[in-house]
């Protein structure tokens, strides 16, 4: 009943806390009120993290500090809210990109978030606290903490970066969450923990963390803001006005309800627990005295009952063991015969009778010579003496028994000497090996067939085997095809220990050993290509492929084939050489084309420019001499001057397109110039970052990087639908790196085929410069293109 009353009181307090406040006058302009009247429904997205926002399953509604704040703003602005909860900030930002969220409270302003949101002024300051055990007492100075007092903090996080940069004396202990940080303090793995006020307010209410207290303020507050969609710029100033109109008293009550750290409870007082402990110890002693008295009364009776029970249990166990022994002997898959010294059978289990084809009891008192005609008395007595002389050791051999119907039964015979009471017996164990012999014959046939197949395979078949864990690996089988491949027979390769490893070309030994060792260490498939030498010293290319197979208990085998790929390798090398020559020819043609472009640009700029200049002078002279004679002539001359000016601009554009003169000022200036042109033509902002000083770069490489930049920006304009483009150029050791990144729709590089000539052209141009091109992109996450070319 008390529990339900407490729950009812909490619900009433929560309802009173979230009740609509008194109307507050918010100073909005007429345009803002008009816009607000047209947008009465807001979609609010919150990250479900207590105490800012959490789902109350009993009331089936959201509650928390951010929820109360937004409900107050909605009441003050007279708008309707549609709530959407998300697991984390990344999921919330994805919903914003999809156009599913208009407003998001409780976010911190970040550079990445500025692309998605417009942020209000901060409405709540949540400090980061230094938490320790209550026994610490006084406040702690962070600058005086030594390295022997580790501080647990969630890494990666902004507060961890702040502590590293501000307090170099701290020894930070990384954890994954604030809960884990507090547990490390309780487990004495860390002296203190850094937790923000909101999370400590929530976690300190749990009994596990009741003995922890705040000992210092770190000095890095978390400023919470209300984020609104960027395509509603009118909403941000409205939210700022509403937040400024929020009474300070309301904000203070909001903080006290959700973020304030609870005070120690009465039950935590040491005196209460000491008195309660004394009462419990007294009650425990009384109970122990009563139990001891009762146990003395029962000891005598229990002792007598134990003796009787032990006697009964031993008798039952003996009877059960006898029944189990008889049953096991009759149900055994092995035939058992007890034979006296005169070779007559004294006992036979049911299996032996069935194996020999007799009815129940039909084997007893028969001599063994009836089942084994070759077992005369002299041979039997010899076996008896050997088994009796090696008591404790069994004799094994295979034989054939004659069954009752005259048929023959192959069996595995084991003889063991046994003394039972005053008699001596020879126990004969019979095992039917009919299936074993059949399987052995099939195995021998299979091995012969396998050797025949391996000998006729156009390659060398082999098996590597590890007999047990950590044992050395060696060749267990090499096919006879080795003679045709390398001129050595399989016996020569196995007996000499040469194996395949002895055939590898000396220059390829390292690659062979590294690939084989990697496959052996990981128990995985093995693949290697390289050169081998035949008996005659001839060099051949070989391809080794072996599949690993685990047989249990650390035993692993690798079955594989060595193929002769000399012809294919020769064709592959010729093809690679042909590709290299084609790439060199393409580089030469590209260089010739760039030189021709530069020459044409100079001729167009110089010669056409001179002609146009003379034409402009002639037109001006004609205007001075004859324009006053005819008013129509003046209009014609003005039209000619405009055409000449357009021709001047056209000549400059053609010359610039063929070879921009800015390239003579260096690749850094050319990149900035191209970015400004792209920005002016497309209205897409370009962020350029180039160093002030660059190492000397060859003209061919500068032109190549500039052409790659032009092609990349063309792709951004045609396909990316980007909002911003970032260009970076920096030296990295002996290479120069150009990075082009956009925030467009991106793509999957694996799905781009050979039909994308823009990407193919860029890759080929980078290869001609001796560099490397990387493309990182995912749908809806933009594209980053990185070019690395050597400086020398």
Automatic annotation (TrEMBL):
Localization recorded for this chain is: Cytoplasm
Q: What is its EC number?
A: 2.7.13.3
What is this enzyme's catalytic activity, as reactions?
ATP + protein L-histidine = ADP + protein N-phospho-L-histidine
One GO molecular-function annotation for this sequence? protein dimerization activity
Using the record for this protein, list the coiled-coil segments as residue ranges, or answer none. 568-599
Which residues are in the PAS domain?
446-523
One GO cellular component from the entry? membrane
Q: What class of enzyme is it?
A: transferase
Residue ranges of domain PAC in the record: 395-445, 526-577
Q: Which PROSITE patterns match?
A: HIS_KIN, PAC, PAS
Keywords, ordered alphabetically: 4Fe-4S, Coiled coil, Cytoplasm, Iron, Iron-sulfur, Kinase, Metal-binding, Signal, Transferase, Two-component regulatory system
Cofactors that this protein relies on: [4Fe-4S] cluster
Query: Which PANTHER family does the protein's record reference?
Result: NITRATE/NITRITE SENSOR PROTEIN NARX-RELATED (PTHR24421), OXYGEN SENSOR HISTIDINE KINASE NREB (PTHR24421:SF59)
- Descriptive protein name: Oxygen sensor histidine kinase NreB
Role according to the record:
Member of the two-component regulatory system NreB/NreC involved in the control of dissimilatory nitrate/nitrite reduction in response to oxygen. NreB functions as a direct oxygen sensor histidine kinase which is autophosphorylated, in the absence of oxygen, probably at the conserved histidine residue, and transfers its phosphate group probably to a conserved aspartate residue of NreC. NreB/NreC activates the expression of the nitrate (narGHJI) and nitrite (nir) reductase operons, as well as the putative nitrate transporter gene narT.
Signal peptide bounds: 1-19
Tree of life domain: Bacteria
Occurrences of domain Histidine kinase (ranges): 599-792
